[in-house]
């Protein structure tokens, strides 16, 4: 099959503030496979290097050295250090070999709020658009400041809303305890669905013990960026929630095999892909994400429109 690719970049409407700093441009690659009959399969490579995937430059270099004519063996032999390339080419290959792409029913979608106090007005806007689950990043500003906004946010949201907090691994054990205490305390006002990645990935045992001390559930995200990390955390006995970002998790067929053989509580989530990658992720989410939980794809309002 013939292989071609194109780089792209898209701007955020406003930079996304996380504890990794501001993110203002999403760069990626669109890949295309065409067979002799003229069938086309598209895929998207959307790296997220601060989560441990290859960088955009590495992905581009990898695509550059690939021959124009690819065999299945080429597609299946992308090294594990290129998980976003594995996903992009793997999903293009799947798209090429599936005659019709099933339009499944997707679970509810979680809307991402901006950090800081702009979360308050954004939450009511997203509520009006039909969102019922929201995610708010913490660990960016001082804890006193963030907890003050949090207290306003939980009363501003209708009681049937669900809120997820995401620390991106930016808390200490002490500040994680302060957050979890507060989440447990406010349970009657608003349900905190979970706190995502309170501590850095290397502190798995500390997160395991936190998960036993508090009622508010914990989710792993950075800890399970790649399939081998996911396997490791399952082996270590994590039985909380797993946030899975399929676009950086490697080959879709391997992720499918793993999730089908391990009944984990998985929440599929976006890395700000464009439409091609998003559709591939949503197909996997429809198959594998826990249908009781909203999927983390409510991010379209963050990027400027696809070109
Ligand atoms: Mg996260």
TrEMBL record:
Cited Gene3D superfamilies: Enolase-like C-terminal domain, Enolase-like, N-terminal domain
Reactions performed catalytically: (1R,6R)-6-hydroxy-2-succinyl-cyclohexa-2,4-diene-1-carboxylate = 2-succinylbenzoate + H2O
Pathways involved: Quinol/quinone metabolism; 1,4-dihydroxy-2-naphthoate biosynthesis; 1,4-dihydroxy-2-naphthoate from chorismate: step 4/7; Cofactor biosynthesis; phylloquinone biosynthesis
Cofactor: a divalent metal cation
Residues annotated for Mg(2+) binding in this entry: 166, 196, 221
Domain Mandelate racemase/muconate lactonizing enzyme C-terminal: 116-217
Active site, UniProt feature: 137 (proton donor), 245 (proton acceptor)
GO biological process, one term: menaquinone biosynthetic process
Family named by the database record: Belongs to the mandelate racemase/muconate lactonizing enzyme family. MenC type 1 subfamily.
NCBIfam families: menC_gam_Gplu, PRK02714.1
Function: Converts 2-succinyl-6-hydroxy-2,4-cyclohexadiene-1-carboxylate (SHCHC) to 2-succinylbenzoate (OSB).
UniProt-recorded name of the protein: o-succinylbenzoate synthase
Gene label: menC
